[in-house]
Amino acid sequence: MAAARSDAFVFFGATGDLAFKQIFPALAGLVRDEGFDLPIIGVARSGDLDALRERARQSLAAAGVVDRAAVDALASRLRYVKGSDDDVETFHALRRELGDARHPLHYLAVPPALFGQVVTNLAVSGCATGARVILEKPFGRDLASAVALNATVHEVLAEPAIFRIDHYLGKEPVQNLLYFRFANSFLEPLWNRDNVASVQVNMPEAFDVADRGAFYDRAGAIRDVVQNHLLQVVSLLAMEPPSGHTGDAVRDGQYKVLDSIRPITPADVVRGQYRGYQDVRGVAPGSTTETFAALRLHVDTWRWGGVPFYIRTGKSLPVTATEVLVELKRPPHSVFAESRPPDADYFRFRLSPDMAISLGARAKKPGEALVGEAVELYASHQSGNERAPYQRLIGDATRGDQSLFAREDSVEAAWRVVDGILDDRTPLHEYDPGTWGPDAATAILAHGDRWHNPVITGADASPDATGSKEAPR
């Protein structure tokens, strides 16, 4: 039996940054592309309906939304409830504003510490009956808090009504990673420990923490992007073929990968902090929060046993990009007498800023000598018609489709992977802004491996002929 479509959309934190930057543009896109016709109710501590409509117009202008019909249609659907997340009377007022709606979708664009209180008040006021709830990341701060939060939310809502959002799963390039893996038969014979030497996921960011010091100092790189975004990418890379066509078939495969990853020990992580971070407003004096993390993962399955998976991310690095590099094993014997051993073949998946897939190999140089050179077969997709992640995910949630949302067991499994290295349990290394992080990051590399630094060149942000450069050893 098909899930009931949501008949109202409520978003808490309606005047906050997330609503301004992501939710209003997503709703306008749904109105424009899918005829989204639900009443939209904003809940916040201050302002009124007129102020909320003006905030929405400013948000859409900043996002470059020029479709006047969509802007006006969104503004006309807005409603407003003024109140506090911890005041139950606010929720009774919300229930009255919902009117005849019996399947509201509540988006909690509020600090995670308030999730439990909001869900409890939704239940007390009757707003949780027949409802769905979208919860923003991070879902907990560690394994214990994630388990406790899951228990609190489950006192009110069953798992099919809980949508833990990770916008990374809604990105078109991430979906393409899943599709490419299982839509092409040539990849499967290679995709295992017999042929793959290592897997590397790089997510450098050229910008610093800017005005997010207070938030970032409570999170750090591991909580902010490793535990969620990057472990989700690893799960898609390492999962077995889905055993069905349902969303849960994919989520089952992702969970099995996350559950198989050995908990990270201090020997498998290097944390760094860029010089100048502690001068940022909102950062605590003497902060030991990492702005850089490099990790080695062990995926203990028959397919991947012995293959190192590397993750590297950080602020104030040379470029902003997300890239996966799957390095294949070298031939067992060098047939051609070349001056240096050839580089290994590889698959590269560029997830941002552009979407591209490439295969690195060797070909003979023109001339009489049997001497080769590195070449890369490169395919780029730049249609520009993809739905924005938040638009895709909010639309899916209204239909009850959980395919691209994190499930309870996967969230807890991901926390279990990183739980032993959170906070200041490992040393912190300083690095200069604009570099590739602390030199100590090479310590986690095994078997003579090296870091592959993503390269962005040209106005179109496409990779150069090689797409990456070897990091200094």
What can you tell me about this protein's structure?
This protein is α/β, with parallel strands linked by helices. Helix content is 31%, strand content 21%. The chain has twelve helices and 17 strands. Strands 14-13-12-11-7-10-9-8-15 form a nine-stranded mixed sheet, with helices on one face. Helix 1 (17-34) links the parallel strand 1 (8-12) and strand 2 (40-44). Helix 1 (17-34) packs across helix 3 and helix 2 (49-62) packs antiparallel against helix 3 (68-77). The model is unreliable at 459-467 (pLDDT under 50).
Give a short synopsis of this structure.
This protein has 473 residues and is an alpha/beta fold. The protein has helices at residues 17-34, 49-62, 68-77, 88-98, 115-125, 143-154, 172-183, 213-219, 221-238, 247-260, 389-398, 408-418, and strands spanning 8-12, 40-44, 78-82, 104-108, 132-135, 162-164, 196-204, 269-274, 292-298, 308-314, 322-328, 346-352, 355-364, 372-381, 428-431, 452-454, 468-470.
- Radius of gyration from the alpha-carbon trace, in angstroms: 24 Å
Task: Tell me the β content.
Answer: 15-25%
Inertia-based shape = globular
Mean pLDDT, nearest integer?
89
Structural class: alpha/beta
Total count of strands? 17
- Helix-strand pattern: EHEHHEHEHEHEHEHHHEEEEEEEHHEEE
The residue fraction in helices comes out at: 25-40%
The number of helices is 12
* Biggest sheet overview: 9 strands, mixed
- Please mark out the parts with pLDDT under 50 across 5 or more consecutive residues, or reply none: 459-467
